[in-house]
Amino acid sequence: MNKPFGNADEKLSAYVTRVYAPEDAVLAEIRARSVAAGLPDIQVAALDALHLEVLARATGARRAVEVGTLGGYSGVALLRGMGPKGELDTVELSPHHADVARESFRRAGVADRVRIHVGAAATVLPTLAPRGPFDLVFVDADKEGYPAYLAWAADNLRPGGIVLLDNAFLFGHLPAAAEGERAKEIRAMQSVHEALARGGKFRATVLPTGEGLAFGVRV
Ligand SMILES: C[S@@+](CC[C@H](N)C(=O)[O-])C[C@H]1O[C@@H](n2cnc3c(N)ncnc32)[C@H](O)[C@@H]1O
To answer: Ligand 1, closest atom to CA 142?
Structure first.
């Protein structure tokens, strides 16, 4: 699976993908090996990985935190964007996912610049605070946790640092009434957008990628 670019026109999406060639052999291998290892096929799309790389580069990020490692696909993109002096702390609940990611970082030649923290982000993030302040926080994990992860980012980003939250459209459910089986996720994601837009800690927008990438700059 490789989700399309944030434009419904498949020809446009195919054109951009062909020209920008966002997935090289290293990333393709991570995606294939992750799936072969039984990981869910839910890493960011290739163009979204390129967004992460370019945004990390544009903001001059050197120290980043990721919530939701999976097999290391987006982590490699962030590390590429931060360049040879960039360092990533990435948090993953599943030990098996973390093992796959460890191999991905080794193969990508970035293992010495990444620390994988195995555990629930709510538990791990407070332990990372002394390493901050950070330049970039990327959130791509359990949606109910997003409000707490955003609050942690607000407390641990430097002024001018950026927070990026994937799946900001909540698979199309974002504008729905908070009821039914997704009620908690909808409430959580709506509160994240309220906090980004009106909480006073970020100047923020949402990039209309296929999944929606919320993007805030710490003021
Ligand atoms: C969408 S995947 C991350 C994809 C990854 N960012 C990428 O694009 O390559 C979400 C990951 O978050 C992990 N996760 C879920 N809940 C978590 C939690 N509470 N704390 C840390 N990780 C969590 C899952 O095990 C899964 O590997």
So the answer is: 16
Find out whether the beta carbon of 148 lies less than 6 Å from any atom of ligand 1. no
- Measured in angstroms, how far is the CA atom of residue 156 from the centroid of ligand 1? 20
Structure tokens at 189: 């994601």
Q: Is the CB of 73 under 6 A from ligand 1?
A: yes
pLDDT of 1 strictly over 70: no
- Is the pLDDT reported for residue 88 higher than 80? yes
Q: Cα-atom radius of gyration of the chain, to the nearest Å?
A: 16
Contact present, 92 and 105 (Cβ < 8 Å): no
Instruction: For 100-166, give the DSSP string.
Output: HHHHHHHHTT-GGGEEEEES-HHHHHHHHGGG--EEEEEE-S-GGGHHHHHHHHHHHEEEEEEEEES
In this prediction the pTM is 0.97
pLDDT digits (tens, 9 = 90+) for 143-177: 999 999 999 999 999 999 999 999 999 999 999 89
140 C-alpha to center of ligand 1: Å? Answer: 6
pLDDT digits (tens, 9 = 90+) for 107-118: 999 999 999 999
How remote is the CA of residue 202 from the centroid of ligand 1, in Å?
Answer: 24
Number of the ligand 1 atom closest to the C-alpha atom of 75: 9
Q: Are 55 and 164 in contact (CB under 8 A)?
A: yes
For 200, the enclosing helix (H) or strand (E) is none
Q: How many angstroms is it from 11 CA to the middle of ligand 1?
A: 31
